[in-house]
Amino acid sequence: MKQQGERILVVDDESSITGALELIMRDRGYMVETASNVREAIALFDNKPYSVVLTDLKLPDESGIALLTHIKRAGADTEVILMTAHGSLDVTIEAIKKGAFYYIEKPFNPDHVVMLTERAMKQAAIRRQCHNRKPSKAGEEGAFGMVGRSPAMLQIYETIRLTAESDASVLIEGESGTGKELIAAAFHFNSKRVSRPFIRINCAAIPRDLIESELFGYRKGAFTGADRDKRGLIEAGAGGTLLLDEIAEMPAHIQAKLLRVLQERQLRRLGDERESSVDFRLIAATNRDTLQAIGDGSLREDLYYRISTIKIQVPPLRERLDDISLLAALFLDRFSRRYKKPVRSISDSACRMLLGYCWPGNVRELESVIEHAVLFCQSDQIMPESLPEQIRIARPGDFKCVIAPYLALEEIEREAIEQTLARTGGNVKQTARILKLHRPTLYRKLKKYGIKC
Q: 34: which strand partners?
């Protein structure tokens, strides 16, 4: 029997759309129901719990935003994704302001819809956990919708517990795939702003020439093509939480403008002479070493001090060996149910391989590995042969610098630094720890040898 968190409602008056999405989602193991208008959708929604609703914007009786409003007024732990063939930033802003998880244009890529839906499901699960449980305590396994009992994770739980209700800015550092967005969501859903929007913006995904208008909005006539006033995402998140992911990728002049907004809590749209008050909590995230980003000019030092009142360093999975088994068990349960396979456990030999792997893709890679293993498993237990090749060929503790003979001492040092950087995915902090160097010393050597990372 599927859990209620895996139920999806698709609303569209085009049967080809509902039929296609129903087929795609059912193939992924989800329960799917469909409606052709807002009236039918509300009747279904009021009688059954749904984790995600995908709805067309233009429906025969009312708009998809009317359905979104009904869902949010009901206080349900349901995420809504709006679909439309008529893209408009105005509609996007209105939808996000009313609580939409995301907004996509037709025609859409099926894989993108699945990815987005599953992200929305995770968000709904976090929201549901936060609503249904007592406040999480440090040391509590699975606290705030996260899994982990390593000392570093317990410290993160404690930080969230102590500071979630404040308005202090948060900076989350960590490699890609470590769960930075989950931590940001935990701050929001355990704060006094929980009923207001949670806006997620990936600074690296927005074209550099559009990010200013996306964030701050603009007045009619501000530039060619600005034929109407438009509010930006900061204004759309009034009273809520703004997550700026990959903040070090934001252009320097936009960082300066953001700093002013944070200091004065006043915002001026492009082309506007007036300022308006804004109220939001900022959470920033980055997969870069912030000291390195400041050093190379990618991140303004004054902005760094403004956004890092609370600073969280998310450990990579290779430093959370105690958590690998917990996470693997969680993913095993999820994918065995999704694909209706009777896989119940992971063999000791397969588990040793998981513990001996370096996990450059972190938790996200582990999730993918377990999904692969479940799909290829032919019994009730995952064996080594079901794991992807990169796991099977890796040897525990296998990382050693491969140094050619007859090199000078400086050449050996350069090789060691380059190979360690490659192993850590360019993470200077981790490289310094492995090589037992202070970071300033490593930076000097990087400059000396002309090594870029």
A: 10
Which residues have CB under 8 Å from 191's CB, separation 6+? 164, 165, 166, 241, 281
The percent of residues above 70 in pLDDT, for the chain, comes to: 89
Kindly state the average pLDDT of the residues 347-351: 88
Compute the average pLDDT of residues 325-331.
Answer: 90
Tens-digit pLDDT profile for residues 198-217: 988 889 888 888 888 889 98
The string of pLDDT tens digits covering residues 83-111 is 877 655 566 666 776 778 877 777 788 87
Give, as one character, the DSSP assignment of residue 51: S
What is the C-alpha separation between 423 and 357, in angstroms, rounded?
Answer: 12
Is the pLDDT assigned to residue 251 strictly greater than 80? yes
Residue with tokens 């009904």: 70
Other CB atoms within a 10 A radius of the CB of residue 61 amount to 12
Kindly tell me the burial class for residue 436, based on how many C-beta atoms sit within 10 Å of its own C-beta (0-12, 13-18, 19 or more): exposed
pLDDT at 228: 82
How buried is residue 340: exposed, middle or buried, by Cβ count under 10 Å (0-12/13-18/19+)?
exposed
pLDDT tens digits for 254-306?
Answer: 999 999 999 999 998 888 888 889 999 999 999 998 888 998 899 999 999 99
Q: Which residues are paired to 241 by β-bridges?
A: 198, 281
* Per-residue 3-state assignment (H helix, E strand, C coil) for 285-340: EECCCHHHHHHCCCCCHHHHHHHCCEEEECCCHHHCHHHHHHHHHHHHHHHHHHCC
Query: Which candidate, 319, 383, 394, 325, places its Cα nearest to that of 356?
Result: 394
DSSP 35: E
Residue 281, beta-bridge partner list = 241
Per-residue DSSP letter, 451: -
Output the six-digit token pair for 311: 């600073």
